[in-house]
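During the reporting period the student researcher (J.K.) took over the structure-prediction task from the postdoctoral fellow and processed the backlog of single-chain submissions. One of the processed entries is reproduced below for the supervisory committee.
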Amino acid sequence: MTRTSRLPGFHRITIEERRSLVVDTTGTDPGDIAQALQGGGLAAETADKFVENVLGTYALPYGMALNVRVNGHDRVVPMVIEEPSVVAAASNAAKMVREGGGFIAEADPPLMIAQVQLREVQGATNAAARVEAASEEILRLANGALGGLVARGGGARGVQARVLADDVVVVHVIIDCKDAMGANLVNTVAEAVADRIAAIAQARVGLRILSNLCDKRCVRVRCRVPASVLVTDEMDGADVIEGIVNASRFAELDPYRAATHNKGIMNGIDAVVIATGNDWRAVEAGAHAFAARNGRYAPLATWRRDNDFVVGMLEMPLALGTVGGTLRVHPAARLSLRILGVRDAQELACIAASVGLASNLAALRAMATVGIQRGHMGLHARTVAVAAGALGDRVEKVAAMIVEARDITLEGARRAIEVLAGDTIGESRAIDE
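J.K. obtained the following structure tokens:
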């Protein structure tokens, strides 16, 4: 079957049927899916080598975002997330984006920053100038600590010195990490060059560590969505566009709204980051620092009207890896990369950011039309039904009952279960009679 992310009815079929369909559309080995996702995808014995004091593993749902087309290529995108409606909303929004040609994305080269703090500096401006004048020596020293990376075409690319105070200078060594996220590589460089840099600056070494504000490693995504696919039962497409643009402007004017606006973006991005074994905490730190880079917290994505289209634009730092770290040992992370079919870390960043922009579109459209709660709480109702004790096909029945009653609570679900139990008893008696 040709690779496609358009899989209508995917949510209505069984788990085994979904797995088979993903195998058919992505070419993934069926045994890999069963093995990688059985019991959460990670054995306790393996987890014990990841972190300390392990008792076991904590599983999260592993779902698929559908309809995603990035730079002309269809992607079935793994998402690991516990929040109801996020996967469905991203898939639905991606379907709308397809009608405008899909997502167009680009990613910067994978450049990361190693920071060396210098303290007790005498004459900070002159010290910074001396460090930059010695850039070639510092780069040679850095590359000497990166033999494997240099052999793969990466390595140190530049040196920048910044004066932070009269007695504090920070030196940035820029590292091309290729397809690695790069944290360990960058920290290695920071420690390898720190003493020499301090000697050149005639200062003392402070901290030596990477920066998660990787603003030289940004991704940019753009999409155009026609008004015709945004319509609802209550609103036409032009009115929906007006609502989306208004929501964007609200986030641009108010940091309190911008924080929640960006959280919606990160719903999509973090889920892909986790599914592929990357560091979602580093991604979050970089995203929010970038959002505040101009001294005021702002939205990472904005939306504008363009005649009968609404145009979304997202820019943010996104350092992801397709080699190294967790990816070497976590079977579900390796599976995710095979399903995605990505060639390198930049391509992965483009896909993750596209899912983030889709999540943002879904949230803004919902708020501009029926409100965020209708769809979200409808899916949340299933979780409530399970928590109340519903089993099997009764989960959907209980969920439908509490949504209709607008009582999506444990008590409401328990009452619904009692009603269904009473109906079943009545049916049994009727059959006996």
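The committee noted the following: Strands lie at 62-70, 73-80, 104-107, 111-119, 155-165, 168-176, 204-211, 218-226, 301-306, 309-317.
J.K. will present the remaining backlog at the next meeting.
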